[in-house]
Design goal:
The protein is built from 8 helices and 14 strands. With 288 residues, the protein is an alpha/beta fold. The protein has 2 domains: 173 residues, Rossmann fold (3-Layer(aba) Sandwich); 92 residues, 2-Layer Sandwich (Alpha-Beta Plaits). The strands form 3 sheets. Strands 3-2-1-4-7-13-14 form a 7-stranded mixed β-sheet, with helices on both faces. Strands 9-10-8-11 form a 4-stranded antiparallel β-sheet, with helices on one face. Helix 1 crosses helix 2. The longest helix has 21 residues. Bound molecules: ribose-5-phosphate (R5P). The site of ribose-5-phosphate (R5P) has 17 residues, from loops.
Length: 288
């Protein structure tokens, strides 16, 4: 029997779709050459919105819109929509991705994100950092004051051979319950990413934001209390870690102003709300 849809699910899906269309309206246009497409259930609506936009506003003659996937599933969504995929490593050397659209598992007030709930984070970060701007699409459940409020743990992509030593280091950093992510049904064993790596989910205390630290809080990990940037940097130092699912630091606009290419943080997050509205948090409006 097909699973029953609950009204809650319908509301969440409607919120995702509404946010995706609004993000598409404000950040996609048919003259773009390279557009990044993230992973997960929300981005499916982002691709739908782009497809609709292209139907109404076809690209100029002889112009191709190329879509850069962030993994196997993302490529499938692009192809099924009849859009043209281009692998990240086939991008022309000097080319930047104009915009990338992606979801998130949790977003804090300063637009730091947790990503990787669906085991995609490494390629998402690659694409975000090669994009002039990352635009995030999410529903109301993801909007929180600080990270690790509702979402329980930080996804970390690790080399299979290093899983036990990474778990041991995470314990020392204040995450005694960090766990290797395993299949829950149908198959036993660890989940593998698009890089054939494993995912460890590491719970920590609710994270402080960079603004908390600027205002004098200590997020250095003493007593297990970390801030986003210190924890991300510390986890990244563990040998065997490929990437950590914390997207923080500069956004694309800030990176380019500093003479760099792109940043990990979104320039804007579109939250589909329970009441059917879309709430937009824009980086430029956030108090530094
Ligand atoms: O690993 C998956 C990605 O980081 C997703 O973008 C994230 O988990 C959000 O997924 P969803 O849109 O399904 O909530």
């Amino acid at each position: 029997m097909a699973p029953q849809k609950s009204p809650d699910n319908d509301r969440i899906e409607a919120a995702k779709r509404k946010a995706a269309y609004r993000a598409g309206e404000e950040h996609f246009d048919s003259s773009m050459r390279f557009v990044g497409i993230g992973s997960g259930s929300t981005i499916v609506y982002g691709v739908e919105a782009i497809k609709e936009h292209l139907k109404k506003n076809p690209p100029p003659p002889n112009h191709m819109n190329w879509f850069v996937p962030t993994g196997w599933n993302s490529r499938k969504v692009i192809e099924e929509a009849g859009l043209l995929p281009i692998a990240f490593d086939s991008l022309p050397r000097e080319a930047m991705i104009e915009v990338c659209f992606d979801g998130a598992d949790e977003v804090d007030e300063e637009l730091n994100c947790i990503k990787g709930g669906g085991a995609c984070l490494f390629q998402e970060k690659l694409v975000a950092c090669r994009s002039k701007k990352f635009v995030c699409i999410a529903d109301y459940r993801k909007q929180q004051k600080r990270l690790l409020t509702n979402w329980p743990s930080i996804p970390i992509e690790v080399a299979p051979i290093a899983r036990a030593s990474v778990l041991r280091e995470l314990k020392l950093l204040g995450s005694p319950d960090a766990k290797l992510r395993e299949h829950s049904v149908a198959k036993s064993g660890p989940i593998q990413t698009d890089q054939s790596f494993y995912i460890i989910d590491a719970p920590f205390k609710t994270l402080l934001s960079p603004l908390d630290v600027k205002n004098g809080s200590d997020g250095s990990g003493k007593d297990g209390q970390w801030d986003v940037e210190a924890l991300a940097a510390r986890i990244k130092m563990i040998s065997g870690v490929l990437e950590v699912g914390l997207f923080h630091g500069m956004n694309g606009d800030e990176a380019q102003a500093a003479g760099l290419q792109g940043g990990q943080k979104p320039v804007a997050v579109y939250f589909g709300m329970e009441d059917g509205e879309v709430s937009v948090s824009r980086a430029e409006e956030i108090k530094k």
